[in-house]
């Protein structure tokens, strides 16, 4: 289903609102920005945009998320993940939030990306993050990484001793501290309740793959 010019305008207003406020707009917000006579007109556009795959939302008021398909429209004239700052506000970038990593695919493969999240541009760039992951479990609480936190990850295939990395073990992503040993690799939790994962050197290349280094942690309070 083809997107209409009016729906493109609504999509742009949603994006601009997120740029300025760092959270999604309500139907009333969009109605005011578009000059609609009532929020229902905005709600109708949300319904159409969701059916066409440009946004995702649930029953909560500020739950709109832009999809990869939306960025295919919005990126015209901009770089893919970086958008200019609105007046008086810091520039934002959009990081892909990785869901379940499909076996055999790169971390940033299209089918692995759940959504894009707005973050300050300081999180991205040459020394910043390339993607984000949602943490499951409490194995890294000693490093103040808690269940449900969002970690920002710089994509790389190697690691130095002691770095906190995201590694794939038989296509399952884990967050651990990385250490090389005489016998192979150790992936160590900072919670003493979780034993180290030890991989023999002859098996390391086949069963373990480093996909990135953790550079920041975000937590909603």
What does this protein look like?
- Helices cover 24% and strands 30% of the residues.
- The protein has 221 residues and is α+β, with helices and mostly antiparallel strands.
- It folds into 2 domains: 5-77, Winged helix-like DNA-binding domain superfamily/Winged helix DNA-binding domain (Arc Repressor Mutant, subunit A, Orthogonal Bundle); 93-218, Umud Fragment, subunit A.
- Strands 3, 4, 5, 6, 7, 8, 9, 10, 11 and 12 form a 10-stranded mixed β-sheet that branches.
- A hairpin with an 8-residue loop joins β3 and β4.
- The radius of gyration is 20 Å and the shape is elongated.
- Mean pLDDT is 81; it is low at 77-90.
User: Which CATH-level-2 architecture of the largest domain?
Assistant: Ribbon
**Helix-strand sequence:** HHHEEHEEEEEEEEEHE
Portion in beta strands: 25-35%
Helix content: 10-25%
Mean pLDDT: 81
What's the CATH class label of the largest domain?
Mainly Beta
Quaternary form: single chain
Q: How many H/I helical runs?
A: 5
Instruction: Flag low-confidence runs.
Output: 77-90
Major sheet description? 10 strands, mixed
Structural class: alpha+beta
Query: How many distinct folded domains?
Result: 2
Q: Might you state the CATH topology name of the largest domain? A: Umud Fragment, subunit A
Give the overall shape, derived from the CA principal axes.
Answer: elongated
Essential attributes:
221 residues; Arc Repressor Mutant, subunit A; ten-stranded mixed sheet; 2 domains; 5 helices; Umud Fragment, subunit A
């Amino acid at each position: 289903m083809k997107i209409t010019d009016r729906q493109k305008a609504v999509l742009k207003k949603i994006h601009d609102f997120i740029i300025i406020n760092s959270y999604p707009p309500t139907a009333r917000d969009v109605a005011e920005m578009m000059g609609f006579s009532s929020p229902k007109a905005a709600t109708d556009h949300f319904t159409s945009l969701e059916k066409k795959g440009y946004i995702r939302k649930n029953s909560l008021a500020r739950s709109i998320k832009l999809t990869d398909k939306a960025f295919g429209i919005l990126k015209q004239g901009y770089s893919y993940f970086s958008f200019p700052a609105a007046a008086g506000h810091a520039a934002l970038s959009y990081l892909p939030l990785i869901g379940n990593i499909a076996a055999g695919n790169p971390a940033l493969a299209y089918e692995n990306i759940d959504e894009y999240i707005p973050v300050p541009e300081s999180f991205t760039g040459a020394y910043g993050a390339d993607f984000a992951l949602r943490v499951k479990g409490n194995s890294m609480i000693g490093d103040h990484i808690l269940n449900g936190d969002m970690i920002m990850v710089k994509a790389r295939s190697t690691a130095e001793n002691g770095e906190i990395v995201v590694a794939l073990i038989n296509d399952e992503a884990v967050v651990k501290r990385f250490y090389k040993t005489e016998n192979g690799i150790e992936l160590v939790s900072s919670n003493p309740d979780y034993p180290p994962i030890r991989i023999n050197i002859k098996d390391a290349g086949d069963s373990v793959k480093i996909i990135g280094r953790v550079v920041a942690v975000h937590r909603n309070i």
